[in-house]
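This section describes the prediction task in plain terms. A model, or a person checking by hand, is given the sequence of a single protein chain and must write out its three-dimensional structure as a string of tokens. No templates, partner chains or ligands are provided. The sample shown here is typical of the held-out split.
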Amino acid sequence: MTAFAIPTLVYDGYCNLCSWLVRFVQRHDKKGHISLLPLQDLPDTPLSEVLSDLPLQTVVFVSVQGDITIRSRAVLSVLRSLGGGWIVLWSVIVIIPNPIRDFFYNMISRNRYKWFGKRQTCYYSTPPKTEI
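The expected answer:
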């Protein structure tokens, strides 16, 4: 796996919950440290071959070094990458054992369209505003 310029969050662009996560990252990633990529655009990227074996119902976080985390660990990686006060939330959640976190993550993932709805079109993140 090759290294990337910035960490990348891969998400389901049709999922309303995933779209909320993307908007959350955009709001709190003031310096643009995290790239956002919908699963629907994955075939057009170098990540497609690497991530082709992963289930489509999970978020994926790819670090600068090319390390891949999925499910609750991916969400924790996002919080850690955001830094600041989000590290406090990360430190609270990370003490919960991974099997327990992933149990709840998988339950939500299986029911995400039923509980949160599905978009008619893929959600694309808006580019960050640049100051002039």
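For orientation: DSSP finds five helices and four strands in the chain.
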